[in-house]
Amino acid sequence: MPEYVPKYIIETEDINLWYGDNHALTDINMQVQKNKVTALIGPSGCGKSTLIRVLDRMNDIIEGCRIEGKVFFKGKNIYESDVDVIEIRKRIGMIFQKPNPFPMSVYDNVAYGPGIHGARDREALDEIVERSLQLAALWEEVEDRLDQSAIGLSGGQQQRLCIARALAVEPEVILMDEPTSALDPIATSKIEDLIADLKKQYTVIIVTHNMQQAARISDYTGFMYLGKLIEFGKTPQIFEKPTEELTENYITGRFG
Question: pLDDT for 174-199, tens place per residue?
Fold first, then answer.
């Protein structure tokens, strides 16, 4: 029999999440296409970051957090008891809002993940580091500074380094939580160009408070409000012909 290939790389089914008594996500159903950029937009506190943390089980580490529903990654529910959470976080990488390089050299930042997963051969690590930095459009800027501290890089370079670090363990999906909100316009533009390039090999899901950014870089957009996914569709449709009045009001600046 031919191998079953799911239609979507990630699919959520009736996701509900509580922080204590706070019902933070309500009945989230979303399908993510492979090798596309999916943007999540909506006002602050609407559940965007919480939702992407559901997708790689980052909320597991938050005390008092309870989740119901299913998240299918390549057809397998990642919330089943037999799932290796470390393996899930390897295959679904996360880039945070504020660049968070480790206080070590540029080289060691990128080699860290492969090292944890058992890569010891220096030649192989050299190749992984160079390839990951190339993919993150950072190699030419740091190839002569690999043994210098990553803390000395600019904010935009640090964020691309964090992307290289995520790519080094060969994920299939990259989650980005407002990756440019701490960056200047030039660094932001470089990250946006990079995202457009990355989708050739990876699936990208980005949380952004910047609607222009979502319109520029994403193929699909989801609009969230008060913990609910109000509308989800192809980006041009969401921005030009939203079907929900709430979406239209947000996009036209009537609130948010």
Answer: 999 999 998 999 999 999 999 999 99
Please indicate, yes or no, if residue 256 is contained in any of the structural domains. no
CA 53 to CA 62: how far, in whole Å?
Answer: 11
Q: Are 151 and 102 in contact (CB under 8 A)?
A: no
Q: How many CB atoms lie within 10 A of CB 49?
A: 18
Q: Would 3 be classed as within a structural domain?
A: no
Write the CATH number for 135. 3.40.50.300
Cβ-count burial 220-240 (b if 16+ within 10 Å, e if not): bbbbbbebbbbbbbebeebbe
pLDDT tens digit sequence for 73-132: 999 999 999 999 999 999 999 999 999 999 999 999 999 999 887 777 899 999 999 999
165, 113 contact by CB (below 8 A): yes
The β-bridge partners of 25 are 17
Structural domain for 69, as ranges: 10-251
Distance from C-alpha of 137 to C-alpha of 241, rounded to nearest angstrom: 35
Residue 91 resides in a domain: yes
Number of domains, the chain: 1
What three-state secondary structure class fits 26?
Answer: strand
Torsion of CA 51, 52, 56, 59, to 10 degrees: -50
Residue 115 lies in a domain: yes
pLDDT one-digit tens code per residue, 29-38: 999 999 999 9
- Distance set, CA 168 to CA 94, 101, 163, 175, 198 (Å): 12, 14, 9, 15, 13
